[in-house]
Amino acid sequence: MFIAGDERQDAAAQPQALESRTRDRVLQAISERGPITAGVLADQLGLTAAAVRRHLDNLVELGLITGREAAAGNRGRGRPARAYVVSDAGHQSLESDYDHLATEALRFLADAAGEEAVTRFAQQRVAELEERYAAELAEAGSDRQARTAALVKALTRDGFAASARPVGDAGSPGALTGIQLCQGHCPVQHVAREFPQFCDAETDAFSRLLGVHVQRLATLAHGDHVCTTFVPTPTVRAAGPAPASTRTATTRTTMARGTRPARTTTHTAETTKGSTR
């Protein structure tokens, strides 16, 4: 009796367990790749659009994700698509006991040896990744865009769900142009929330790897839905006459080399004649 009853209960629980695991897959995918639309999620997870939307509605109701209007490039016909990102509550639900254990260990280290010890630990941890990435970026050459693309590939392979896109208008004089490097997942997000040394060490490593000072604009640790780093790129100057400041600099350079303007040469000749007289 009890065995048969247990079997009936197990059979009834199986669909619920499967539903829960699928929902967790959807939440994890949004964490790693968000902002992401329902259509893209369905394609990447091998689920039907109806199934994905059911899980999305459930996750929104639980407060684990939030939706917003997708970028114009992702829109199709009909109503605007919505792109989803993990909320603060969603990130907390993804945290494991290991996150809490790591935080407690770092608190102990900070109390026993000081904040500088935590900083050195963060730098050492990032240095190991930097050393590995340096060889891969070296193969990309000196072009900053190519090096950033190589960094994105390496970060994604290691679970950071990285992406990059150009920002700024290169055709506008004085416009700030660059690459926006994003990371949709951070293995040490929970720790970095209390110890920003990990974010600082990673940012410094990006600067060294890319050969330019980069700027961290947003982090998952501070509650943003993605870590965002701005990588400046060289501005290509449009063809045309050189600005006045450039012409002045050129004139000064020419004079420094010993070639003087015509008026100065004439004055020198007249002085020479006067001396002859």
From TrEMBL:
It comes from the Bacteria. Signal peptide: none annotated. Residues 11-114 form the HTH arsR-type domain. SUPFAM superfamilies: Winged helix' DNA-binding domain (SSF46785). One of its GO terms (molecular function) is DNA-binding transcription factor activity. Residues 238-277 are annotated as: Disordered. Pfam families: HTH_20 (PF12840). SMART domains: HTH_ARSR. This is Transcriptional regulator.
